[in-house]
Specification:
single chain; mainly beta; Lipocalin; eight-stranded antiparallel β-barrel; three-stranded mixed sheet; 1 helix; 42% strand; globular
């Protein structure tokens, strides 16, 4: 039984699913390479893919809800196929699978979808939403450490940060949209740059414009905005500071609550 709380509105938000365009016998993300139509395209192997989780600048957060965007990229040299509907599972820091389930799809998302063909460099995304507030009587919450996607008999995983909550006697649940190809082909996107940091971390940085830095590290994507600095270009979000000195050197530092300039010295990162 719920506490007195506007849960009905929350449930409606969580259950809302993104409408998808009608599916044909095959859905392609980006154009397949020349000659691919004459070759048999096989299922993607985990080694061909990169999975990251993107908070999308906090657009999922509010009214005791949260979420993330699953971003799957074909990093290989050949086209391959993936299931159109993501099949995630969650595990704690000890590797124990958690009892967190998908809500039953409704509307267009309930229809069957053909596998998606991913050309080299192509990207697909899926929106995942859940209740993050402990708003239920006798409720419970779980904080997974990893999210794993099933790809046939194989798996690919990424670090997960978040809390999913459910009612007493029921598992925590999430709503998930089918994968959707990213509209802009990779060739029109800003080229990522790889920085090697002194702590062993690798940071993929993209500067889509002069005011933004998009960083991917620890299996998560962060969107930082430009901030005032005396030298170099300093970018921040709610949790991280990225201070670049030219295009080949930068410093990554965590932001403590309430900070706009990192008190921690952070780690040095360099691009070869």
């Amino acid at each position: 039984m719920l506490r007195t709380f506007p849960i009905a509105a929350l449930a409606l938000t969580l259950m809302a699913c993104t409408s998808q365009p009608p599916q044909t016998d095959a859905t392609q993300a980006d154009a397949a390479p020349p000659g691919a139509a004459n070759a048999r395209i096989i299922a993607c192997a985990p080694s061909q893919l990169a999975l990251t989780l993107d908070s999308a600048g906090g657009r999922f957060n509010g009214m005791s809800h949260s979420g993330t965007m699953l971003v799957l990229r074909n990093t290989g040299a050949a086209a391959c196929t993936i299931p159109a509907r993501p099949l995630p599972s969650f595990a704690d820091s000890g590797g124990q699978t958690l009892n967190i389930v998908a809500q039953t799809p409704t509307g267009p998302d309930a229809a069957s979808h053909s596998p998606i063909t991913l050309a080299p460099g192509a990207v697909v995304t899926s929106d995942m939403r859940w209740v993050s507030g402990d708003v239920y009587d006798n409720g419970h919450c779980e904080a997974p450490a990893r999210l794993t996607l099933a790809l046939g008999q194989q798996r690919i995983s990424a670090a997960f940060t978040g809390r999913l909550c459910g009612a007493g006697g029921q598992p925590s649940a999430y709503a998930l949209s089918p994968f959707t190809p990213v509209a802009a082909p990779l060739s029109t996107m800003a080229k990522p740059m790889a920085y090697a940091c002194d702590d062993g971390r690798t940071v993929q940085a993209v500067y889509p414009d002069t005011d933004t830095a998009t960083l991917t590290f620890d299996d998560r994507t962060h969107h930082l905005h430009i901030a005032v600095s005396a030298s170099g270009a300093r970018y921040v979000d709610d949790h991280w500071q990225w201070w670049s000195k030219g295009m080949h050197q930068a410093w990554l530092a965590p932001l403590q609550p309430g900070e706009t300039i990192a008190s921690a010295s952070g780690v040095a990162c360099a691009m070869p």
